[in-house]
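Hi R.,

Here's the chain you asked about this morning:
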Amino acid sequence: MTFGFPRAGEGYFSPDGQWIVFQAYPPGYPFYQIYVQRLDEREARRISTGRGRTTCAYFSRDGKKIIFASSHTDPKIAETEQKAREEAKKGGHRRYQWDFDEHMEIYECNFDGSGLKPLTNSPGYDAEGSYSFDGKQIVFTSMRNGNANIYVMDADGSQVRQVTRATGYNGGPFFSPDDRWIIFRADRQRKDMLQLYAISVDGTHEVQLTNNLDTVNWAPFFHPSEKYLIWCRANYAPGRPPGGFDLFTMEIEHDATSLRGGKVTQITDAKGADILPVFSPDGTKLMWTSTRTPDGTSQLWIADWLRGMKATASRTP
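And here is the predicted structure, written out as tokens:
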């Protein structure tokens, strides 16, 4: 799906399924920026400011707005950019590590990038935002209290409340299609060894969905049918080469007070890494970030989803 970028990924569909929003490295610039692109075209259009780190873009449910996290207001942005350029000149392969930039805030803009305004304004990292299915709330990750936890706010940035109160990293949250649950990843048991969790939106019920500290599990995302979720997992067991992420699905049953995981099925088995999977709003397409490209760079890929479990009309935005 993406071409001409040194690196691209973390894409999400527009509510009508005709566009995607994603992050990519512009040639010659050391940090991701946010782009939109029609599914039937190769040309992408940048909507972020072009400065600072950006990540985690997401369409509003009416498709008119886009949110993303950005550090473009960092008062030392020129210094930060120069340091990144110097690191890039060293070359070689370095293990990927996300920088929890304290200047990251969540912003809202119009579809064309105009009307940019902040939705958060707090000390510490605010990012990883996505909308509820009714469009009224945004769930996100914040380090405003020193630890990365899950928060929910109204779509206009008001009425912020904390949902998780755990140690370690708790992030990457998404609402379930019925807006009763939030699914996320956390490394509560061992640093960096992420496992999948779900918590009710009011924070009163929580369940751990994976529990294997030889594996890293992240980027969970519900299918619109609500019958299963998809995520990526890598096996870091002793004696195995690290970093081979593949996609898996897990059967899900849930109601207002309980959520249970079931059968797990492996979906991909390609050389390199398959990560950050998402479904189209009607459940017929799967998009994900992969290094299966001939040059080994990460780019967005898309495929028909043949499982045949489409969203019901009531769940389609």
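One quick note: Residues 5 and 83 are 21 Å apart (CA to CA).

Cheers,
M.
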